[in-house]
Design goal:
heterodimer, A: 20% strand, B: alpha/beta
């Protein structure tokens, strides 16, 4: 005697990711965070492209803004900034 | 968005969201973000198993802001073919969820393991059938996701966990597989190499790949701080060095009247014009832990010379093909 098992319509949806990874903050991975000296910044936007996390956004005025709650502190932005206006600072 | 420039594209919403769990300093997300900024509109992506796939789709989170299909290690190209064929069929019948799209950018992301070794037959089949999709090879030169095992894309003399450098062997004994030539031999309309150090070049080539009708192939150079053993902030400077030493030249290859036509891109064309600006390959090798056995305890000039000879040889062949 076999009992009828639930079909595809009754079963809950499986293997479907339901949340954006924006809800998972990776900011606590890093030890150092970038500090941008906006007076020296030339708005070249390279730090925005070189950031692996997408944690550097460009605001309406064209200046970069760091989202510290996602920054993993790799330091690529500070290394690559053509005018060296980004400095990595140890967080407390 | 039709015109591409750095300022404009920086305002475009991200295709790959923050909060993914790739290592700090990984170049995967840098290149993928740039490529997704160059899309024309509706986009569907698929990923073969690899660092990118495992780090962006950890249950219950997804980093993809575009429709994205997960598949097995070997069939990224086959899945992309299926997506493209489904879209074409829906367009023809005039019904179905994809029927309304005039253009659709179908992208297959795969690593070097999923391209050089495991996914080669699926890739070859998809190129031969001529589906209109873009295959992106994210080449970090070993199976980094499972713990740095050597692949067909690993360069000569690189130490990996399955080709460790020691008294018996000096790291990997074989040379890197010429994947671009294998792909170009299929007679597809567009092949290009990408390096994250030149964002505009990456986006321009990606846009061109999406616009071209038929299968296109993009070979991206991906630095891996963990597997290559270098400090994480050096990812971009090391990638730049790879092109400046001609270890990874930048070029594109189009098909004109059935013949492959090679064209060097910006940084490599500059080296072709001024050969003195070509840096010695030693500079590139020295900065990475995976090549340290070439310098310590004693310097292995024989191996360094053979790597330099290999680079020079391939560079000369490329110059000949590009007619420089």
């Amino acid at each position: 005697m076999s009992t009828r098992k639930p079909g595809s319509k009754e079963l809950p949806i499986g293997a479907v990711v339901t949340k954006s990874s924006m809800e998972y903050e990776t900011g606590d991975w890093g030890v150092e965070k970038p500090q941008i000296d906006l007076e020296k910044c030339t708005q070249c936007t390279l730090c925005h492209y070189f950031c692996p996390e997408g944690a550097i956004t460009v605001n309406d005025d064209g200046y970069p803004e760091v989202q510290n709650n996602y920054c993993k502190g790799c330091g690529i932005c500070a290394e690559e900034c053509p005018v060296k206006c980004i400095e990595m600072v140890r967080m407390k | 968005m039709s015109e591409l420039n750095l300022k404009q594209a920086s305002r475009k919403p991200e295709g790959l969201a923050s909060g993914h769990r790739l290592c700090a300093g990984c170049a995967h997300s840098i290149v993928v973000r740039m490529i997704l900024k160059a899309t024309r509109g509706p986009t569907i992506a698929t990923s073969a198993t690899g660092c990118l796939e495992v780090a962006t789709s950890i249950m219950p989170y997804s980093s993809w802001n575009i429709p994205w299909i997960h598949n097995a290690f070997e069939n990224a190209a086959a899945t992309a073919s299926g997506i493209e064929a489904a879209w074409q069929a829906m367009r023809k019948k005039g019904k179905g969820p994809l029927a309304k799209y005039e253009t659709l950018d179908v992208i297959a992301f795969a690593g070097d393991g999923g391209t050089y070794d495991i996914g080669l037959q699926a890739l070859s089949g998809a190129l031969e059938r001529g589906h209109d999709f873009t295959y992106v090879l994210l080449d970090n030169e070993a199976y980094m996701n499972t713990g740095i095992q050597r692949s067909g894309g690993t360069p000569f003399a690189a130490a990996t966990t399955t080709s460790p450098a020691g008294r018996v062997i000096p790291g990997k004994k074989e040379w890197k597989k010429p994947i671009d030539e294998i792909v170009i031999a299929h007679g597809i309309p567009y092949v290009a190499t990408l390096n994250a150090a030149w964002p505009m070049d990456v986006m321009r080539k990606s846009r061109k790949a999406f616009e071209v009708d038929g299968p296109t192939f993009l070979h991206a150079f991906i630095g891996c701080p963990r597997g290559w053993r270098y400090p994480m902030e050096k990812t971009i400077s090391l990638s730049r060095l790879a092109t400046q030493t001609c270890m990874f030249p930048l070029y594109e290859c189009t098909l004109e009247e059935g013949r492959p036509v090679y064209k060097l891109s910006g940084p490599s064309a500059a080296i072709a014009r001024r050969p003195a600006s070509k840096k010695p390959v030693e500079e590139y090798l020295m900065s990475q832990g995976r090549f340290q056995h070439l310098f310590r305890p004693e310097k292995r000039d024989d191996l360094l010379d053979s790597i330099q000879a290999w680079v020079d040889h391939n560079w000369e062949i490329l110059l000949e093909k590009a007619g420089v």
